[in-house]
Write a structure and sequence with these properties.
There is one protein chain. Helix content is 19%, strand content 38%. The chain is an alpha+beta fold. It has a 5-stranded antiparallel sheet with strand order 3-2-1-4-5. Helix 8 (521-536) packs across helix 9 (545-557). The longest helix has 18 residues, at 2-19. The model has no long low-confidence stretch (mean pLDDT 76). It comes from Yoonia tamlensis. One of its GO terms (molecular function) is structural constituent of ribosome. This is 30S ribosomal protein S1. Binds mRNA; thus facilitating recognition of the initiation point. It is needed to translate mRNA with a short Shine-Dalgarno (SD) purine-rich sequence.
Length: 558
């Protein structure tokens, strides 16, 4: 009997060991009731436990559980203080989930999950029993400001990394979106052809253009393809969210980049340029842009011409175009050249005004008196500002009749208002020569007005020097060299003259350039002798020269 009892006990223990599940394992149980958000589960051997219903729910869904359902749970403890088994569906699910996820990771398959919490640097995702980390950068293709609407939704994720020992899983939502975008993109691009007209929505505007959504794929509409006219910034034409008509200009099959254009759907204004803007015609335009080398002027929408800096002003030569015109200014321009292949129009601004040198030449013939301000003083003369914003130059040699120009230029200051006479106007070279000394008339010309070469004139001695004497004739100074003082060598002594003496001299030369009279007493004496000989006989008639001269002088005295 005892034997039997022992056997029975052994069998009983054995059955207990067999049927009593071990703590820490996954067991099967049956739902016997559902109350207050919990399921009461019988896990056998009169052991029951409670599990919150939400543990049975899939991410982002309600729990679907009914009495009588068989479920797998994790047995944490056989009995607690309340005499119940401590069981957990979540832990059973976690074990299950890790097996499932590891397989999905190995096969590179997507897994379903729901974002349920926010942590530093990203979010937590429930993958149906296992918790994964979703970095902020992996939420969407573009940065997401508010992830609220994505919370709790069942959606696919890609597992980037997992480590079961550490309990780490990193997932990405972005990878899925990019994949589906790429598929969508390929499909949209496959349906597009170059030259096709499509509708798109402006998604983003940058300085160089706008990105347009063509239904899952973006195209770039460059600023130069928005309009035929110059567009400084795309926001002048477009607003974000606006639907626009565009033409597909180019599709790059490798990079999947799509170039779009708007102006291609409008008439090209260049088709009519040559007919509308003939060479030499004058038009009103608006300055759109100013650079160092000139100004761009819009003749009509889409047709712009360049006024090169050299064609801007007759008078302002080395000036920045911005000093002559300003942006948005209305100006009158002349068409100088059209190059349709390069789509270039050369314009002139100065051609619409008369050449100021021409005007000056017409209104100021040589000899006209002018007045102006000294603009500049250089080593070779003065620059005087004249009407029409042009300058005239007074050369050193035109400053004074007396002395050297170098000596008197120092008397002038910038800003002085001076008078001068127009000496010459060269329209081609844009040069105006002026003379200040001409204002007083030419004292030399006036003095020697009636004097000719060979004339005998009376001069006054003003200075005695070793080399000769200085004399004055009506205000014109001259110098008679020693050798010209007498035909007689013994008489060629300057000291025999005194200052104030009146002397008759013969004019040997009149040099209006150097403004000098060539004078000689010797030449006068020789000429007088010649005359006497002709009048009173030849020199070989036996009469001495002294007799002839004596007679001539006598005759002169009588």
């Amino acid at each position: 009997m005892a034997n039997t009892m022992e056997e029975f006990e052994a069998l009983l223990n054995e059955s207990f060991e067999m049927d009593t599940p071990a703590e820490g394992s996954v067991v099967k149980g049956k739902v016997i009731s559902i109350e207050a958000g919990q399921a009461i589960i019988d896990v056998g051997y009169k052991m029951e436990g409670r599990v919150d219903l939400k543990e049975f729910a899939n991410p982002g869904e309600e729990a679907e559980l009914a009495v009588g359902d068989t479920v797998e749970v994790f047995l944490r403890q056989v009995e607690n203080a309340r005499g119940e088994a401590v069981i957990s569906r979540e832990m059973a699910r976690r074990e299950e989930a890790w097996d499932r996820l590891e397989k999905a990771y190995a096969d590179e398959l997507r897994v379903d999950g729901a974002i349920f919490g926010r942590v530093k640097g990203g979010f937590t995702v429930d993958l149906g029993g296992a918790v994964a980390f979703l970095p902020g950068s992996q939420v969407d293709v573009r940065p997401v400001r508010d992830a609220g609407p994505l919370m709790g939704l069942k959606q696919p994720f890609q597992i980037l990394k997992m480590d079961r020992r550490r309990g780490n899983i990193v997932v990405s939502r972005r990878a899925i979106l990019e994949e589906s975008r790429a598929e969508q993109r390929a499909e949209v691009i496959g349906n597009l052809t170059e030259g096709q007209e499509v509708d798109g929505v402006v998604k983003n505007i940058t300085e160089y253009g706008a990105f347009v959504d063509l239904g899952g794929v973006d195209g770039l509409l460059h600023v130069t393809d928005m309009a035929w006219r110059r567009v400084n910034h795309p926001s002048e034409i477009l607003t974000i969210g606006e639907t626009i008509k565009v033409q597909v200009i180019k599709i790059n099959k490798e990079t999947h980049r799509i170039s779009l254009g708007m102006k291609q759907l409008q008439d090209d204004p260049w088709d009519a340029v040559e007919a509308k803007f003939s060479l030499g015609s004058v038009h009103q335009g608006r300055v759109t842009n100013i650079t160092d080398y000139g100004a761009f002027v819009e003749l009509e929408a889409g047709v712009e011409g360049l006024v090169h800096v050299s064609e801007m002003s007759w008078t302002k030569k080395n000036v920045h175009p911005g000093k002559i015109v300003s942006t948005s200014q209305e100006v009158e321009v002349m068409v100088l050249e059209i190059d349709s292949t390069k789509r270039r129009v050369s314009l002139g601004l100065k051609q619409t005004q008369r050449n100021p040198w021409e005007v000056f030449a017409e209104t100021h013939p040589e000899g006209t008196e002018v007045e102006g301000e000294v603009k500049n003083i250089t080593e070779f003369g003065l620059f005087i500002g004249l009407e029409g914003d042009i300058d005239g130059m007074v050369h050193l040699s035109d400053l004074t009749w007396e002395g050297r120009g170098e000596d008197v230029i120092g008397d002038f200051r910038k800003g002085d208002v001076v008078k001068a006479k127009v000496a010459e106007v060269d329209v081609e070279k844009e040069r105006i020569s002026l003379s200040i000394k001409a204002l007083d008339g030419d004292p030399f010309a006036e003095a020697v007005g009636g004097v000719k070469r060979g004339s005998v004139i009376t001069v006054e001695v003003t200075k005695i020097e070793d080399g000769g004497i200085e004399v004055d004739y009506e205000g014109a100074k001259s110098f008679i060299r020693r050798s010209d003082l007498s035909r007689d060598r013994a008489e060629q002594r300057p000291e025999r003259f005194g200052v104030g003496d009146k002397v008759d001299v013969r004019v040997t030369n009149i040099d209006s350039k150097t403004r000098k009279l060539g004078l000689s007493i010797k030449a006068r004496e020789i000429a007088e002798e010649k005359e006497a000989v002709e009048q009173f006989g030849s020199s070989d008639s036996g009469a001495s020269l002294g007799d002839i001269l004596g007679a001539a002088l006598k005759g002169g005295d009588e």
